[in-house]
Specification:
- The chain has a two-stranded antiparallel ribbon with strand order 1-2.
- Helices cover 73% and strands 2% of the residues.
- With 252 residues, it is an all-alpha fold.
- The chain has 10 helices and 2 strands.
- The longest helix has 25 residues, at 70-94.
Length: 252
Amino acid sequence: MFELVLPQTPEAWLAWSVPLATLVIGLAYFLTPASVLGHLGLQGSVGEARSSFAGFLVGLSLAAILFDQPVLLQQLGLAWAFAAIGKLVHVGLDGARGLSVMTRLALAAAFAGLACALAGLPDATRLAMPAAVPQMLIAGAGLLTALTGVLALVAPGLLAGVLNLVPEDGEAATGELRGSHAGFHLAAGLGVLVADGPFTELALGACWLLSAFGRMISMLSERDRLLFNWAMLVAEIAIGSAVLAVVFGMVA
C-alpha cells in the first residue's frame, strides 16, 4: 500500500521535518519514559508514557512519513496546534512559566505553523453522520479518541489521577497533559470524522495499537495496577483492531 521514498529536494525534506521531529519526541517517551515524565514533573506509573503519550506521537508521525499524504501532514499540524493551545492554557490557568514550558509551547506552535503552511488546513466541512456499521465503528472510535483529548485538555488532573501520574512539585504539573497528550488524541479522533479516505483511519488504528504495544512493554516491568493495565490493553487492542478491520474491508 505504501512505498517509502526518501525526499529528494530541500522542500521535500522540509515537509518531512515535522513528522521526523514528532517521531523523535515520541520515541523519547517510549525509550526513556521515567526521564521524560520526570522532566515534566510527573511520577507514578511512568509506563503510561509508552502508551498514553508515545503511541499517538509515534503513530501519527509514522503514518505521515510512510504514506506521504497531505491530509496526514494536515492532521499532524492540527495535533501540534491543539498542543500549543493546551500549553497556552497550561501557562494561563496552571501558572506554568518555566523555560521548558515556554520552549515546548514555541516548538508546538512552530510545528503547527510549518505543517499548515506546507499542507494547508484540514477541511472541516466533510463531517457527516455515519450510515452503515463500518462508518459507525470508525466514528465511534474517533469520537472516543477525541473525547479523551478533551478530557486531557479541560480536566488534566482527573485524567492524571486515572493514569496514576502524580505531580512532583505541585498540581501545575498535571497540566502537562493539556499539551501533546490532548493535542494528538484530539487530532487523531477528529481526523477520521472530518477527513475523507483511509489514511486518517489507518493512522488512528496504528495509534491505538502502538499504545497497546507500549502498554505491553510497560507491564513487563511495572507489576502494579494489573487489572487497570489489562483492561486498558484490551480496550486499546479492540479499538485499534476495529478501525483497521474496517479499513481493510473485514467489516461489511
